[in-house]
Amino acid sequence: MTKRGRTRDEMGGAGEDQDDHADEMTKAGGAVEEEELASFTPKSPISRPYIPDDQLNAPTAYPETHNAFNEANAKYEAKLRRRYHLFTFSDEGNLAPSCLFSHEHLLPIREPAKKAALHAAKSIIRLSSSVGGKPLADCCGLWIKWEEESKTGIVLTTAHLIRTNHPTRNHWEGRDEYNHKANVIVHLLDDTTAQGHYLYHQEHYDLAFFKVRVDEPVQVPSFSSSVHCGQDVFRLGRDDHMNLRITHGRVEYLNPGRYERHHYMYFFHEKNDDLPHQRNDGYLPRRKNDDYLCDDDGGSVIDLDGKVVGLVNKQLKKPFVPSSILVRCLDLWCQFGCIPRLHLGMRFTSIRLLDPIHVEKM
């Protein structure tokens, strides 16, 4: 910049002059439609204003230069912001990366996993609940149905969304309390919200169904017929900003504990201490640990084909309800409006998941 405060673009005959020239032609012509103006993109490059080093540290000696520099810099910043708004790729350089971007050990399955995650993500939304104006819970959910005539969708989520009291970790005591009149808000992918209307919940499987008014069709996921131990899976959820969260893991070789439902299967995620730690807000502080703290309760567990193999049911050992159970529950609910279940008073342990030493003795 010279003492007159001209930018490098101005010295070269380009820069803001082209924008000003475009404005003059618009005023003079008057024939350009508003639609064309809205789509008009300045062709001049974005150049940072320049000020010579000998004048940079002497604002009092060169007041005109510094005033011109500040004015040009303000225009530069405004133009930069306008350009960023033209793209869907936001300027969020500190957004926590997913495992499909930063984990080198996933390279052999990265492409099919990325395709599967992006496909399944379209069915995942976020819900929040409150009672008497006080926040109750936040979780994720899945679209499972959309009706063309009524313009309504059905969401499957965890019953934890409306659980008001959890006095003991022993699920078999059945002492949890639920409030089906809780106010439920559904957070949609277009940054809008809708009211969730309670339909039904089942306490044994911790499932809940809500009806939502939604004008556009929603994507309903496919459910896998089976899931097996050791299988590569991905846990999907959304954080408070509706950003997709992806966590790689495997189906753990584990029987449920004595206090947990016997239908649970478990998601095993191995932490990587070489990666940055992520906070709840999705941004990276300077600590190490890759366990992204996203409350993905009610989110889906998918396979490499993008099919749902389970619904996250957040407990101490990160269990999920397998797809074989979910499909049966969905069929029962669609046919009868409820999910009946016999209570036999017995607990079961899978022989298949026991130590081979014990199996051999049996």
From TrEMBL:
- List the InterPro entries: Peptidase_S1_PA
Cite the residue spans of the region called Disordered: 1-62
Question: What domain of life does the native source organism fall in?
Answer: Eukaryota
Query: This protein is called what?
Result: Peptidase S1 domain-containing protein
Which organism encodes this protein? Brachypodium distachyon
